[in-house]
Amino acid sequence: MFYTQNRATQRTFLANAWQKFIDKKALDPLENQLTQVIEMHPEYQQLINDVESDYFPEQGEVNPFLHINLHLSLREQLSINQPIGIRKYYQQILNTTKNPHEAEHKMMECIAKMIFSSQKNNMPMDYQAYIRCLQTQFD
Questions:
Q1: b/e per residue, 2-29, with b = 16+ CB within 10 A?
Q2: Considering the entire predicted model, what is its pTM?
Q3: DSSP 42
Q4: Tens of pLDDT along 57-77?
């Protein structure tokens, strides 16, 4: 259910998971992953319930829903080592940053660039560009 193109459905799922966490209710594995990310971001915890808000990066705003989903996407990539070698890049970036959360953020910048470029140019995701971006994180 979480992997949908419907923004309202995704955001509501995330808000409901966070509320279940606050209420100390049982979480399914995906909800548990989401709440772990939200816990790392206290600046987003109050925003999660506002599923209707728009965020404008060009005005310096960070979309907390997108940010949380990028964490989740990266963790999925790492769990299955796709694209191939992603774990190696994570480890190299982690060796530089010495902080798992910071390492994820550096990698998420590259994911965001790949997604933005794909959407802007109406092209498939360029995983080679993604890998090149990751390589620059520890060069």
A1: eeeeeeeebbebbbebbebbeeeeebee
A2: 0.88
A3: G
A4: 777 888 999 999 999 999 999
Q: What gap in Å lies between CA 126 and CA 113, rounded to an integer?
A: 10
Q: Within the chain, how many helices (H) and strands (E) appear? A: 6, 0
Give per-residue burial for 76-88: e unless 16+ CB within 10 Å, then b: ebbeeeeeeebee
Range list of β-strands (E), 22-116: none
**pLDDT single digits (tens) 9-27:** 989 999 999 999 999 999 9
Q: Nearest 10 degrees: CA dihedral of 60, 134, 83, 90?
A: -100
Residue 85 CA to residue 130 CA, distance in Å, equals 12
Rg (alpha carbons) of the chain, rounded to whole number: 16
